[in-house]
Design a protein that fits this description.
single chain; 5-stranded antiparallel beta sheet; alpha+beta; 38% helix; 5-stranded mixed beta sheet; Beta-lactamase; Penicillin binding protein transpeptidase fold
């Protein structure tokens, strides 16, 4: 086959057929640039959580360092710093006062009855075993309860927080009244740290052995002993409720101070125990029905004059620095109450008219035991004890010493002496404005009417040396003036010392040493001191005391002490100082010797026209005391060469007449 040249050249000479042309697909439109995906929400939260955690730890560390750098070492919580306490009891065992901090032996909570722990937790911290030291739920509940009540009725702090607060206060970081934010924060931090370092039982044990429970008691052992005279293991359900109730306000709910409030608070504790299912309603009612009374405490307003004095003299009997002490005293609560009531009556009757502001009283029995003591009108306003501390001029009460010296010199109560005016140099002693000069008067009448002119004449005859020596034999130790004014009572002494001098005459010339402490023991009952009577010594002849007692009776029968006279045997002497600055009455019955003083601390004068407030108080007080048959002292054989008989002994016998032999 012949090919055309075009064909050889591959060129078509005819119209070629249309070839099927494959169309290229149009390229897809360009995609927009791919955006990077951001982190997920969880990744974001994780990232910022870590950042906040780091900052939180950092700031928290700064916070803890700032508020915790000065927190005390909690190791001290298990150490007990003892400040010995002194518990003072009356003659009948009634508690008078407690001084210092009373601590008991450490108590293991595992040895306590369940109701003791339940009472505590149900009223103070029912979620104690489930929270971490700070209880948000308890705090919210307390806020809600207080909001509904309209006032604070419930606290939100846990027992651990209370222990922390107690520890901070005991370490002197804060005082009791501190309510600062810093204290609250440190309390919470310390509570959390305590929960970390100790078990719950350890925290509760430390708390119960350290917490203040009122009336100077620290710890449950001391409180159980103080309020109920029991060991904590022996506390009844009601007693446990009383002690648990103290935690809210120890002084307010103390059964020693407010027995009614203590009962009401205990009832609330028992009600909480019922709500928590720890006791039944019947157990609650039975506990209230069988409620035991707290150990009786004397509530006289002036008792602290006596107990303060006991503390002052106690260190002369025993060492008061190393252990808790129980001091049994001679004070009779009935007599003390009577004295306080009668003093209040005299103050109300006569204080404004007689222009006196203070009084004091000492009453002792024939052994020298102090049965009642008042050191002033109001202890809260003035703690100065005018019975044992105040040195006051004694006035005519000193005439007992002078007339005793006269009788010992051979004079007789019926001997006569001039009562006319007398002058010694520039000194001209005068009689009381109500006294009428008689010219010649018996020594007994001169004593009864308190004649100053007779007194000075008598002193001139006897001489100062004899008078001073007589005062010393009666037990008066205070300095005395070295001139004749001594017999008008310009010397100073205390009410206690002057009353003791009169007691020598009441005891028919046998000396005595007044005392107020019977026995001292520690908490374990070990006897540290027991009073032993000082050896009695006859310092005045009994015949002389008979005559002098007759003269003292005359004072009350028709003399200056007539207003003080009471039914039955009584003998005593008034005393008024210059310008009526002091009023005294010292006297005795067959049973008691009592001295009373009235005046003003600033030595301003009283109004003599209203009568002696001291005589009035002596009359009111001694008039209600029982009188026993008279005591009598048997004389021991005395060598004839001795001027006065030697020591005699007290016989517990009774005689028909006070002067019988």
């Amino acid at each position: 086959m012949k090919l055309n040249p075009e064909d050889r050249l591959g060129v078509s000479t005819h119209e070629p057929a249309k070839a099927k042309v494959k169309k290229k697909k149009a390229p897809p439109p360009p995609r927009p640039p791919r955006q990077k995906k951001g982190p997920s929400l969880w990744a974001w939260l994780l990232r910022w959580g870590c950042i906040l955690l780091i900052w939180g730890v950092f700031l928290g560390g700064i916070f803890v360092l700032w508020f915790g750098y000065d927190l005390p070492d909690i190791g001290k919580l298990q150490q007990t710093e003892r400040r010995p306490s002194i518990t003072i009891l009356a003659k009948d065992g009634t508690k008078l006062a407690t001084y210092g901090d009373l601590h008991g032996q450490m108590v293991d909570i595992r040895k306590l009855p369940p109701h003791v722990i339940q009472a505590l937790l149900d009223i103070e911290d029912r979620r104690f075993y489930s929270h971490l030291g700070v209880d948000p739920l308890g705090l919210i509940r307390a806020i809600w309860v207080n909001y509904r009540a309209g006032h604070v009725v419930q606290g939100g702090s846990t027992i651990t927080q209370q222990l922390a607060k107690n520890f901070l206060q005991s370490e002197k970081l804060y005082d009791v009244s501190d309510r600062s934010l810093r204290r609250k924060i440190q309390e919470a931090l310390l509570a959390l740290w305590l929960e970390h370092k100790f078990t719950k039982d350890q925290i509760l044990t430390i708390y119960l052995n350290r917490v203040y429970l009122g009336s100077g008691t620290f710890g449950i052992a001391a409180a159980a002993q103080h309020y109920f005279a029991k060991k904590p293991q022996d506390l009844s359900l009601y007693e446990a409720a009383v002690i648990a109730g103290l935690l809210k306000a120890p002084s307010k709910y103390s059964p020693s101070n407010n027995p009614q409030l203590a009962d009401e608070r205990a009832a609330q504790v028992l009600e909480n125990m019922v709500k928590e299912g720890h006791i039944s309603d019947g157990a609650k009612e039975a506990a209230l029905a069988l409620a035991s009374s707290a150990t009786e405490t004397f509530r006289g307003s002036a008792i602290r004059y006596f107990t303060d004095w006991i503390v002052d003299i106690l260190e002369t009997k025993v060492d008061v620095t190393d252990k808790d002490l129980i001091v049994a005293t001679t004070l009779d609560p009935k007599l003390q109450t009577l004295a306080e009531e009668k003093l209040a009556q005299v103050v109300e009757e006569k204080a404004s008219k007689s222009k006196f502001s203070q009084m004091a009283l000492v009453s002792m029995d024939y052994e020298g035991a102090i049965r009642a003591l008042l050191g002033g009108v109001n202890y809260k306003k003035s703690q100065f004890n005018r019975a044992t501390q105040a040195l006051r001029q004694v006035g005519s009460a000193f005439k007992l010493v002078l007339f005793l010296a006269a009788l010992e010199a051979g004079l007789h109560p019926m001997d006569k002496m001039s009562d006319l005016p007398i002058r010694i140099g520039s000194w001209k002693p005068k009689n009381n404005s109500k006294y009428k000069t008689r010219g010649e008067i018996s020594l007994q009448d001169a004593f009864a009417y308190s004649s100053n002119t007779v007194t000075v004449r008598l002193a001139q005859q006897l001489g100062l040396a004899r008078i001073v020596q007589t005062a010393r034999r009666l037990g008066m130790t205070a300095p005395l003036p070295d001139d004749l004014t001594i017999v008008l009572g310009t010397g100073e002494t205390t009410l206690l010392e002057l009353t003791t001098a009169y007691a020598v005459i009441a005891r028919q010339g046998v000396s005595l040493t007044p005392y107020a402490i019977e026995k001292v023991t520690d908490l374990d009952g070990n006897v540290l001191y027991v009073h032993e009577s000082s050896p009695s010594q006859r310092v005045v002849d009994p015949y002389i005391t008979r005559d002098l007692t007759q003269m003292l009776q005359a004072v009350m029968a028709y003399g200056t002490g007539k207003r003080a006279s009471i039914e039955g045997f009584c003998a005593g002497k008034t005393g008024t100082t210059q310008k009526d600055r002091d009023a005294w009455f010292i006297g005795f019955t067959h049973t008691f010797i009592t001295g009373v003083w009235a005046g003003n601390d600033d030595n301003t004068s009283m109004n003599p026209e209203e009568g002696s407030p001291s005589s009035r108080l002596w009359h009111l007080y001694m008039g209600e005391l029982p009188q026993s048959a008279p005591l009598f002292y048997r004389e021991e054989p005395t060598p004839a060469s001795e001027e006065t008989p030697s020591s005699g002994g007290l016989i517990d016998g009774l005689i028909e007449s006070f002067f019988g032999r």
